Write the structure tokens for this entry.
Amino acid sequence: MMERRDFVRRLLADRGDLLVVCGLGSPTYDAAAAGDHPLNLYLWGAMGGAAMIGLGLALARPDRRVAVLTGDGEALMGLGSLATIGVKQPANLAIVVLDNQHYGETGMQPSHTRDGIDLVAIARACKFGEARAISDIAEAGAIRDLLHAGRGPILVQARIESGDTPRVLPNRDGHAIKQRFIAALNAAG
Amino acid sequence: MDDRTSSLSWPDAIYAQIRRVGIRQVGYVPDAGHARLIELCVADPDIHDVVLTTEEEGVALAAGAALGGQRAALLMQSSGVGNCINMFSLMRNCGFPCVILVTMRGEFGEFNPWQVPMGSITEASLKLAGFLTYRVENPADVEDIVGAGCDMAFSGDLQVAVLLSQRLIGRKIWTK
């Protein structure tokens, strides 16, 4: 089992021009804790939509790599989008589910993954060419490389500890987050 | 032929506006009313057609498209609007342009009462969610209204829905 901040820090190391969509709650805080970046789209709501934002972005920018960093509860709310992504087969899209088997924002109630619902099997059934679960921090570097060079669609279920982590709060102004992202993407070409 | 486009069927008139404003992603759940327009989009190599499992996926898709610099449109039935409500907060909070073309059910001559509860609150729901709504009854108005709606959405980062009335759809497709 991995410590979430440690894992996300390794995942986003030397991120280059990676575009990152962060699901609401802890994944947004984890990404901010790893280092605020204009190419992070922090979500504070729109639960269940992170993967589809990733798809729209991946289709619009096939020349760039897109990573969706989200939680098990958020991913479960948008399960249908895995089927939609499987149909489109975006080669530049990866989804990393930070799976602590709980709903952290609402008081650590258990999620479906706690009862063995298997996101990796679901992703495979949805034609994700690469779908794997990891729980050893020694594999974090390989997953980081997968985000940058693997053939999508990719889903990684990252088993993380369910312990309390201090919140690291990025900007909450949606317009500012969006405009900063678009400006950085345009500047990079 | 001094006004060629006005002789187009309404789905073709919408497609002409999709081309004119450069929409590159179209998300939809299969729908009889939109069948012709969906066919046109699927056949267009410049358009990513994205078939969805539920309409709210399309709202998030449109946000991602805008983030990446592409324009998107969503095609749905009035029942689909109900599936989108919370996801609409994404568009409003971030100011993403959003164009939704809604085929209305549950109104003029509807045979299925199960379509009525959502159909009767579709326009009010969209307004509550922050959308500008424009209703089209006459086929001759489709091009103008869809075009104007697209221009407002994309030039002002606004959320716009065009409601294609059941009477319009019925006249053009079901009674042909």
The beta strands of chain A are 19-22, 40-42, 66-71, 93-99, 102-103, 109-110, 130-134, 154-159. The interface with chain B takes residues 21, 41, 43-61, 64, 78, 80-81, 83-84, 87-88, 174-175, 177-178, 181-182, 185-186 of chain A (CB under 8 Å). The longest helix of chain A spans residues 174-188.
